[in-house]
Amino acid sequence: MQQNYAAFYQEAQDFLGDRIYKDYLRRVVYGIDASCYRYVPELVVKACHESEIVRLCALAKRHNTPLTFRAAGSSLSGQACGSGVLVMANLGWQEIKPQENGASVRLGCGVIGAQANNALKVYQKKIGPDPATIATAMVGGILANNASGMCCGVAQNSYKTLKSIRVVLADGTLLDTSKQESVEAFKQSHAPLLEGLLALRKEVLEDEELHALIQKKYKIKNTTGYSLNALIDFEDPIDILSHLFIGSEGTLGFISSCELHCVPDYPYKTCFLLFYETLAEGLKGVQILAQNADKISAAELMDYACLASVKGAEGMPSVLNEVKPGYSCILAQLESTDLSTLEANSAFVLEKLQAVPTVLPLEQSTDHKVYNAWWKIRKSIFPIVAGRRRSGASVITEDLCFDMEHLQEGIANLQSLLEKHGFKEHSVIFGHALSGNLHFLITPLLENPTERTQFSALMEDLAQMVVSLQGSIKAEHGTGRMVAPFVKLEWGEKAYQICERIKALFDPDKLLNPDVILSNDPQIHAKNLKESVPIAPEIEPCMECGFCERICPSRYLSLTPRQRIGLQREIAYLSQRAAQGLATDKVLLEELLEGYKYLSDETCAACHMCSTLCPLGIDSATIALKTRTKEKAPLVAKEILKHMDVVVGGLKVGLGAVQVGQVALGANFIHKCSQKLHTKIHTPIAPNYMPRRNKFKLTSKPSDQNVLYFSTCINRAFAPSKLMPDPRSLQEVFESLCQKAGFGVIYPKELPKFCCGKAFIDYKDLSVQNTEKNAKLLKELSNNGQIPIVLDHSACSAYLIEQLEHTGLKIYDMPIFIQEFLLPHLKITRLNEDIALYTMCAAKRLGYAQNMRDLAKACVSGKVVEHTDTGCCGFAGNKGFLTPELNDHALLDFTSFYQDKKLKKGFCSSSTCEVGLSQHSNIPFQHIAYLVDSCSDE
User: Which residue blocks in 258-367 are alpha helix, DSSP H?
Assistant: First the structure.
């Protein structure tokens, strides 16, 4: 490590502790973003507070170390990666505060755009910017890129909806434009900077040609260079400064938070799906829609390659099967505050569109489930096309913008350039039609010198073509490194010099995100491009978009799915290099393999939730599961499974010992002692909500209508903690419900030795044997599926349901059985209180979240309060006891969410998850069966 970075690291440790990283593993994987560039930072920092940003800026100046700020890392143009110090800002920056009944909203830079919109739903409002990545992108990046999207155009983007902003400048000064005292202090301390901005404004206003150019450029989408429109739109230098930060891509300072004006989220929406025989015909439809833009909120254009790429993908509408080569498609959306206006506008627009005949029947829907599936076509194009690329190919996406007058010519020229440079067969074109905003995606093999040269030549020709048509080389993805060499070409010498002087005013030492927006390197766009190496086929399609990250329980602790896959690529790359005898790479490989065990394997919950957000369904849990899987089970595993009754008995003894300790010394004391022992010798922890020993005797109580109750091994051992409101065992509660509903309960005599097998999935031979044994046993006991089978832990239920899916057995997770079989026969008196609800990950994957919600709402008249952003609690079976930091970090947002809710009860369907949920929220969570039983009459 260079001396200046070593000094930076040493000094930063004083206030960052273990949140600054110099090891190669985390530097390389934390450096990954969604762009086509690969930069390995010298250091990585996870910053949690403005005071840390201030000190980092001071250190950067002292040691001449460049800083790159990043939120979600979903940017596409290379602005969120760098080779200096990468500063990640997500945890700790998640403030969401709606103001004045949703007229505006204060947002921290680490808030995901969709989270902001969820908080504003109650007011029928949303934030203006609506990028396709809104479920991933964070506010810091949305503002820094001046993100727009499919609906907002140029009228509701970040620039137009900004009310105030809170930033840290390169010199460490904090400015909050919403606070007068901050503004006045800044005017005193930074008078030269503000005078410089006013001088630039004066210069632009006095130059009629430059003034006119800026006005014209921002009538369409444009994120090339700095937001020069701030110099003509505002007189107050603070307003100019605020709006220059929009689209500045971390080159002028750090955006800590903002307040945005909100826009209406109209309650009534309708969508059209229009198919045309050619792209040219589709463009005629676009022009008609543009002429009626006052009635249209969005219109997306897709070429045949787009439609072909998503055909057959999960969740896509069946009409795509009728699409033939050459077809194009428009997806249009209309919305309104009232239904009658929407219907009138729809009829008007459809009448106008009759001038251009469609090739397939019109598809129209006001059903959000239907039109959301249509929007999935558009939103999935980028990741699906990228995921289906040739092996070893990289993913490069660009976006351009033309006014309507030049749109058709622009598309024709783009198609010609793609063909000229050899990308016709490996490209798609789509875009926000109403805005004249085109996106295209190419997948070149950058290891191939010919394709690498073709890419560079394409970019140069593309820039010339766009400028010739007075368009924007970058419409909404930000300049980044991809377009930095072409800023002068698009804007001209005078405007480019204005950009350079803006940079000099804010960052005279050029330490903030160097080579982004402005660069002296004419080839920066073609350098440090990602090169792909083959990895396991089930994860190779990953194009590092980061859509999966927000749901991963280890995202704040170790690695995310994107980073775990990136680590696999780096291991494969270094393995190749080491095999060639390169000693340096062999050392790096050994370092990666050493850190891999904890960061990638031990702290992976293997919950599979990443696959639910990945457009390609990639499941990074397979990485950990492959590492853990063994062909042959050791003798001890076989003996444990064989003698499960003894094991459960032993577990009960252990729980009894902990219970004695808690009674004698206090639960909190035992918990702290267990934590210290865990730190020293890795023994399990004993949380305050540690379950008690289950003493309930399982005795069959048959009736005319019966259920086979295969209580799981963990619940045969567990009884509720003494801190729980209901001390009864789950078996007693379920028996009570069945008795009230007229069902008999049968405990099979084989139950003491029964295990679903989930605990043994690491052993192939044992898993196969146990699954075969269970299938035979359950078929026999259920009379070939005639009697329903119930399990009482959702993780075990999900595993057995998936393993025995094709056996004809009727296997139910307990909440589903209660809802479908018992609830109709129960007399419910709804409780007048608010409750917390959590659907554990395995149940979510089976689609049970709504079932849990409906069951809870059937039992209470108060609110059912859920933190839907927690996809997995990270308890992961025994990891909550053996790797408790995973559970701790997975529930950081969960804990914060419930902190002020003042709830007395929570409900779930997993006894292990309930331990962690209770421990971190101080709300006692029990199985939802307890809720149903408590409100059902005898």
Answer: 279-291, 304-310, 339-353
Positive or negative, the CA dihedral 874, 878, 881, 883 is negative
**Distance (Å) of CA 894 to CA 327, 412, 506, 603, 689:** 47, 50, 38, 18, 17
User: What does the alpha-carbon distance between residue 23 and residue 647 come to, in Å, rounded to a whole number?
Assistant: 41
Q: Residue by residue, what is the 3-state secondary structure of 400-416?
A: EECCHHHHHHHHHHHHH
How many other β-carbons are positioned within 10 Å of the β-carbon of residue 550? Answer: 21
**Cβ atoms within 10 Å, residue 626:** 12
Distinct helix (H) and strand (E) counts, the chain: 38, 27
Q: Give the C-alpha separation, 245 to 177, whole Å.
A: 12
Other CB atoms within 10 Å distance of the CB of residue 656: 13
CA distance 256 to 552: 24
Retrieve residue 926's tokens: 């029990």
CB burial of 213-237 (b: ≥16 within 10 Å; e: otherwise) equals bbeebbebbbbbbbbbbbbbbbeeb
Structure tokens at 330: 């428009």
> Which of helix, strand or coil describes residue 324?
coil
Burial of 695 (0-12, 13-18, 19+ CB in 10 A): exposed
Q: Is 786 exposed, middle or buried (0-12, 13-18, 19+ CB in 10 A)?
A: exposed
User: For residue range 842-897, what is the model confidence (pLDDT) as tens digits?
Assistant: 999 999 999 999 999 999 999 999 999 999 999 999 999 999 999 999 999 999 99
Out of 424-433, 637-646, 789-798, least confident range: 424-433
- Predicted TM-score (pTM) of this structure: 0.94
pLDDT by residue (tens digit) across 390-403?
888 888 888 999 99
First CA to last CA across the chain, in angstroms? 72
Collect all residues with Cβ–Cβ distance below 8 Å to 553 and sequence separation of at least 6.
Answer: 605, 607, 609, 871, 872, 873, 874, 876, 886, 889, 890
Q: Which of 764, 102, 223 is nearest to 480 (CA)?
A: 223
pLDDT in tens, 640-661: 999 999 999 999 999 999 999 9
In the prediction, which pLDDT does 386 show? Answer: 77
The whole-angstrom distance between residue 251's C-alpha and the CA centroid of its chain comes to: 25
DSSP annotation string for 877-938: TTHHHHSHHHHHHHTHHHHHHHTTS--S-EEES-HHHHHHHHHHHSS-EEEHHHHHHHTB--
Residue 175 to residue 166: CA distance in whole angstroms: 6
DSSP 481: T
What is the rounded CA–CA span in Å between residue 367 and residue 374?
Answer: 11
| Segment (H or E) for 115 | helix 113-120
Condensed to tens digits (0 to 9), the pLDDT of residues 473-492 reads 999 999 999 999 999 999 99
Determine the Cα–Cα distance for residues 258 and 138; give it in Å rounded to an integer: 12
What is the residue-averaged pLDDT of the chain?
95
Q: Above 90 in pLDDT, residue 938?
A: no
Q: DSSP per residue over 368-430, as a string?
A: HHHHHHHHHHHHHHHHHHHHTSPTT---EEEEEE--HHHHHHHHHHHHHHHHHTT-GGGEEEE
**In 293-358, alpha helices (H):** 304-310, 339-353
Q: Which of 510, 208, 174, 79 is nearest to 502 (CA)?
A: 510
Between CA 685 and CA 724, with CA 675 as vertex, the angle to 5 degrees is 50
